[in-house]
Amino acid sequence: MRQRAVRPPVPVSEFAGFRFPPEVIVLAVHWYLHYALSYRDVEELLAEPGLVVDHVTMYRWVRRFTPLLIDAARPCRHTPGDRWLVDETSVKVSGRWIYLWRAVDQDSQVIDMFAAEHRDLPAARWFFTAALPHGRRPVEMTTDKAASYPRALDELLPAAHHIDAWRANTRIESDHSQLKARLRPMRGLKRLRSAQTVSVGHAFVQNIRRGHYELGVDTDPRLRLSAAFTELTLTI
């Protein structure tokens, strides 16, 4: 009996089942991650051309599609440099202060971000373990004088030169201000996961704008971000 050839399954778009077209969903996510807007602000902007989208729906779009867009862009990302600056900044989640651990390289590429309830050795281990696979292992690490850094670096990066001199980390501290400006209109974060998603998404946008992805490279630099999100829409 002759067997029929088995056809490979057709990939299902991540946008399947959504009422709005992919272009509208990604545009809303792009605006929210890029600009200092609340979900209600984006809701009002979409209403101007007649697109009625509830702000709760917007929240669900950001939570679902931000990780998918970042994963789709991963093959286009430049390898981070070998000199890292690491620091934590604090934000409020449900009335409690939590810490955003962040690392940037010497070219201002945001390497990774981690939202944690504590500023201790387990959090430092978790952050470095997640950040190190993004590229080459750094030969130099600049941090503040937090007690958690020396032990974590001795365990995970014993060969790296560790710098913790006073005010050696001003570049990343300045970079924190851009993230804080993005978080300010949100009127208080409710969940740790939301802090993680929005912070990682904002870093993703910053990296595209700074030229750390091979996305939107053939367009006007002012339109690079829009072009990048259009390219990524076609891949997910």
Automatic annotation (TrEMBL):
GO molecular function: DNA binding
NCBIfam families per the UniProt record, alphabetical: transpos_IS6
Name this polypeptide is given: Transposase
Pfam families: DDE_Tnp_IS240
Protein keywords: DNA recombination, DNA-binding, Transposition
Source organism: Candidatus Protofrankia californiensis
Keyword DNA-binding tagged: yes
Domain DDE: 82-212
GO-annotated biological processes: DNA recombination; transposition
